[in-house]
Amino acid sequence: MKTNYIFLAFYLLVGLVPYVGAADKVVPQNLYLNIVNLIAICYLVYQKKNPLKELSNSMNNLPFILYFLFFIWSSITVINSINITESLATLGELFTLLVTFNFFIYFIRRIKALENFIFIAVTSLLTIEIITVLVPYFFEISQVGSPLQRGQIYRGYTGNINVLAYVMLIKIPFVIYFQIINKGNKSFNFLLLFLTTYIITAIFATRSAILALFTVLVFIIIFLVYINQTNRHKIEYLSLKNIFKTILLPVILGLILNNVSSYAFESLSVQERLSTLNSISEDKSLSQRLTYYQNAIESFMEKPLMGKGIGSWEIESIKYVLKDLTNYIVPYHAHNDFLETLAETGLPGFLLYFGIIFYITALLLIKVFDKKIEYKIRLFSLFLTSALLVYLIDSTFNFPFDRTIQQVLLFFILSISVVFLDINNKPTKLFSILPLFLLIITPLSIYSSSRLFKSSQNQAIFLMQFNRQDYSTPSIEVIDKFEMDYKTLTATTLPMSTIKAIYYMRNGKMRDAVPLLKKGMKDNPYIYINESLLGEVYTNLEMPDSAIYYSKIAFEATPKNSLHFGNYMFSLVGKKDSITIKEAFKSLDPEIEDSTFDEIYLGAMANVTDPASANFTLEGLDLNIQSGNDQLKKGYYAVKVGARKMYKADELYQTGMYFFEQENYTAAANYFENADRINPYELAYKENAANAYL
User: Fold this and answer.
1) pLDDT at residue 219 above 80?
2) Predicted confidence band of residue 283 (pLDDT cuts 50, 70, 90)
3) Which of 18, 218, 321, 613 is the most buried (most CB within 10 A)?
4) For residues 97-118, b (16+ Cβ closer than 10 Å) or e, as one string?
């Protein structure tokens, strides 16, 4: 009996698995689940005479079959995937969750006091989550004087405050249930509701989670009143007075504290935070998400049956935003699991995955509306439904499908529902084959997750060095041993081979970088960093035609990326093509406010023209040379007087500054005036000459 509790506890504690040097916390969490699954299989083989039959008994229900079919269908959609290894990595995660789902059902069915276990599990996890938020929160108040609203230091063990908001919120229906039926310490349950409300509304200030909290509370209260009204005998603890005391009061107090703290710390109150939803056009986050939704729908319409392949949206999403990309921060997710599932796996995949949730929700609601059954069963059905409602709201605004901890919580709730509803199908040959399938694939899944873990550790190093623009460490010899074939992309969709190529380039191995960059083009054909870097490589190798060819592709695909523009400009410098340089510059979006493009243009033109062509170079341009941008001024002066004269004038100016500091003002004035004669466009020369005479 204790073994069942221990295994369930191990599964539910997946959120506590640390990064262990990985770039994405999901990776070590999946490895952890695979290990727990393997131990569970070994336990069954050791304890049971017929382990295959034991496993098949947990599989003879429609929700598990639907998820199994979703896994099979997702495997088929790999045919359409633009990057097979990325899809295989996602399939490995799906298989791990499939086995986890099976063992959840198996162990939950063997627990007699299921309600007690749920109470202990939910309140314990929620307590840990609250502590991981409040400890840094109060520490920051004591150190700084006021907390940072939505600070990532409050992300607890999930890695993200938005994820933690929903991880906490999905447990709230159970806490309310236990509060209503007087299970546990009422004061402690009250405190959990109060603190969770405050954390979600004040510390996290996650708008969708706030809306989800209010939606679920209204949903619960309406149905509690309905159950009480339709029950044969009125239930005292379902009276409006008791509902107010047990549910509304802790929430109201949490909101009051939210307003007090927002005044004290000058942060946004819950009302102010929600008021930002009024104007979608002015809210960048909201308008951006609407764009992502539209892109996902367009992608689905292209291949409505099979989609673009499981796990492929992280790449596919890029092509819809190429023209607006200024760097390598990509959408990665559609921020709506309904649409992302449609885009990746088509309509069948969508129906199979969400069909599990909708099917169980429908069965639970039937029990809620059934006036003939015991009210406690109706109550428990209501709160299971409410927890699933939280997940569905999360799926509408975020991507819990990609978060292992949220998937584990979902399957925990689904497994409770399967056992509670006593969902069983008639045994068929399929149920005798499925356990064998799981046993055969599990070793492959462990091998897959272990390789992904090693790759993620390598990615963490690569991404850190890429963000720092430091390619001095680790050495070439070390990175040559990095795992780059499975998976091929980093957590940001940058190809591993691309970052390795940059190491080679910065260490003077230009030719060795070429095959790595061409591999990166295949791994992610929409990021265009590889084409741009190939332009840089071929410029250095004095192959101007190849340099122009590749850098032009990158520039035209992502015209707002200053790096791509720069590499294209300097590939044209090799050809002395001033006309094309100016045409490319004039083709830029006039709304671009980044002066880097002006600096690059002037620098390129200074290398291919002489001062006699300055009018051609500057015609039609509106440059604020006296803005204080030194690089912009440098390019302008190089165009107007030539680079050699510009440096000569600066040399005279520096000498004049030396004499000025020595109080030899006559000599200083002469040097300043000589500098001004060479470069009359730098006003500082005239000003300092006047100061010297003064």
Assistant:
1) yes
2) low
3) 321
4) bbbbbbbbbbbbebbeeebebb
Look at 255-269, 272-286, 398-412, 422-436 and tell me which has the smallest mean pLDDT: 272-286
Residue 306, pLDDT score: 94
Sign of CA dihedral 272, 278, 279, 285: positive
Tokens of 485: 């074939």
Strand spans (E) along 550-642? none
Comparing 231-235, 553-557, 638-642, which segment has the lowest mean pLDDT?
Answer: 231-235
Please state, in angstroms and rounded to a whole number, the distance separating the CA atoms of residues 269 and 275.
10
Instruction: Check: CB of residue 424 under 8 Å from CB of residue 60.
Output: yes
Q: Which long-range contacts (CB under 8 A, 24 or more apart) does 531-534 make?
A: 531/557, 532/561, 532/563, 532/564, 532/567, 532/568, 533/498, 533/501, 533/502, 533/505, 533/567
How far is residue 431's CA from residue 221's CA, in Å, rounded to a whole number? 41
Q: For residue 489, list its beta bridge partners.
A: 495
Q: Report pLDDT digits (tens) over 311-327.
A: 999 999 999 999 888 88
Residues 530 and 518 sit within 8 Å (Cβ to Cβ): yes
Give pairs for 348-355: CB < 8 Å, separation 24+.
Answer: 348/73, 348/305, 348/306, 349/70, 349/73, 349/74, 349/77, 349/307, 349/310, 352/66, 352/67, 352/69, 352/70, 352/73, 353/66, 353/67, 353/70, 353/401, 354/395, 355/66
CB 412 within 8 A of CB 12: yes
Rounded Cα–Cα distance for residues 289 and 162 (Å): 15
CB 456 within 8 A of CB 491: yes
* Pair 343, 296: CB distance under 8 Å: yes
